[in-house]
Design brief:
Layout (H helix, E strand, L loop, with lengths): L7 E5 L3 H10 L5 E6 L12 E4 L5 H9 L3 E4 L6 H9 L3 E2 L3 H7 L2 H10 L7 E4 L2 H4 L8 E5 L9 E4 L13 E5 L3 E11 L5 E3 L3 E5 L6 E6 L5 H18 L3 E10 L4 E7 L9 H4 L4 H9 L13 E7 L6 E2 L1 E3 L1 H5 L4 E5 L4 E2 L4 E8 L3 H14 L1 E3 L1
Parallel strand pairs: 1-2, 1-4, 2-3, 4-5
Antiparallel strand pairs: 6-9, 7-8, 7-9, 10-11, 10-12, 10-14, 12-13, 13-16, 14-15, 16-21, 17-20, 18-22, 19-21
Helix pairs in contact: 1-9, 2-3, 3-4
Length: 378
């Protein structure tokens, strides 16, 4: 296969996801070029080639892509028109620009679910804050920006008319509040040959303030029937997209037992970090296999796990100091991943810890201990 000798994979985005893709790509002798807007991005010192440039600039992305044999992303906020042009010039782009364009707009994303009979929460499209006032009977709901929202930003909960002042004054949507039992995620991959493999569903617990994943439990504590249903739903989504690459499908299991798709991300995802230690194939290797049209790896679980996100402490900004690191290193089964970010900020993703083991209760105890002991301060 050509990429073993003379092949450059271009990754648009040089954050922690790109960093872990590079770490996996080393096993395949891949030369990986990175484009990122941060001159000190986590990938800077480990990429074969690092280009400092704006991801949303047409000419910058086009020039970068032309120097690569295949282009992929680790963040959706990129110039899609440049990716379409690369595709027209014969350079493979996976996931396809059409998929990235859909994901960039939550309004289009929700309409896509509706058009393809993919179960999701009820929603209405709104044009601005004034338009939200026309739908007070739809509350309680989440007001989501159509574009530019990520990592919990661009989402505002509106419980009643007293909350209308929080509404976004840009095009977006109102999504009906779901009375859910659990939040789930299924990572699924598809290659050019149409081979598809899904990782078993995991269970997510979000930080109450930052709206970021704080804990992840794998496998999700749901019935085998619901696990199969969630994986079948992920199959339907990736097939409906006709997508090549890795897709994270975030879902709700509501109190009535229905599984609803919340949002999707066409790239490695925070809800798949634990696969590095806990599954036969990691999500990062699987993404590479999918976009390179290799046979997909075994996604099954080797050991149950808990993944803890390491977030910058509230009230701290500056050079990162990892307090309690030795305490965590003394925990059996704990694997620390730091993301190479020199500066910490409140709730900034600075790393994660995955704990593997066969005793569920013990796993949760260790995860709580990690949260208590390991603090990222300035």
């Amino acid at each position: 296969m050509k990429f073993y000798q003379d092949f450059t994979l271009g990754i648009v985005g040089g954050g922690q996801l790109g960093r872990m893709l590079i770490q996996s790509g080393v096993d395949y002798n891949l030369d990986i070029a990175i484009l990122d807007g941060d001159a000190n991005a986590p990938c800077k010192n480990i990429a074969t080639r690092f280009v400092h440039g704006k991801l949303t600039d047409y000419d910058t992305l086009l020039e970068f892509g032309r120097s690569c044999d295949l282009v992929t992303i680790e963040i959706e906020n990129v110039n899609v028109e440049a990716l379409y042009q690369l595709e027209r010039e014969g350079i493979k782009v996976f996931p396809q620009p059409s998929v990235i364009e859909l994901i960039q707009d939550k309004r289009k994303q929700k309409q896509f679910y509706k058009e393809n009979d993919i179960p999701t929460a009820d929603f209405v499209l709104v044009e601005n804050a004034e338009d939200v006032k026309n739908h007070t009977s739809f509350l309680p709901a989440f007001n989501k920006l159509g574009k530019e929202g990520y990592d919990g930003r661009g989402v505002q909960r509106l419980d009643n008319v007293d909350d209308l002042e929080k509404a976004f004054d840009k095009p977006g949507l109102l999504e009906k509040l779901v009375d859910f039992e659990k939040e789930l995620s299924v990572i699924i991959a598809r290659n050019e040959n149409g081979e598809i493999k899904a990782f078993p569903p995991v269970e997510l617990v979000f930080h109450p303030e930052a709206n970021l994943v704080e804990y992840l439990y794998s496998p999700a504590r749901i019935s085998p029937e619901k696990a199969s249903e969630s994986m079948e739903l992920a199959h339907k989504v990736i097939n409906s997209l006709d997508m090549v690459g890795l897709l994270a499908v975030e879902m709700f299991l509501d109190k009535k037992g229905n599984i609803l798709v919340n949002e999707i991300a066409p790239r490695p995802h925070n809800s798949g970090h634990q696969t590095i230690e806990a599954n036969v194939t990691s999500q990062y290797e699987q993404h590479l296999r999918a976009i390179l049209n290799m046979p997909l790896g075994d996604p099954n679980i080797v050991l149950p796990s808990v993944m803890v996100n390491l977030l910058g402490e509230s009230g701290h900004e500056g050079l990162a100091v990892y307090e309690g690191l030795d305490d965590v290193l003394n925990i059996d089964g704990a694997h620390i991943h730091l993301y190479g970010k020199k500066i910490t900020k409140p709730f900034r993703k600075m790393g994660h810890v995955t704990v593997v083991g066969s005793d569920e209760k013990e796993l949760f105890q260790k995860a709580d201990l990690i949260k208590q002991k390991l603090k990222i301060i300035a």
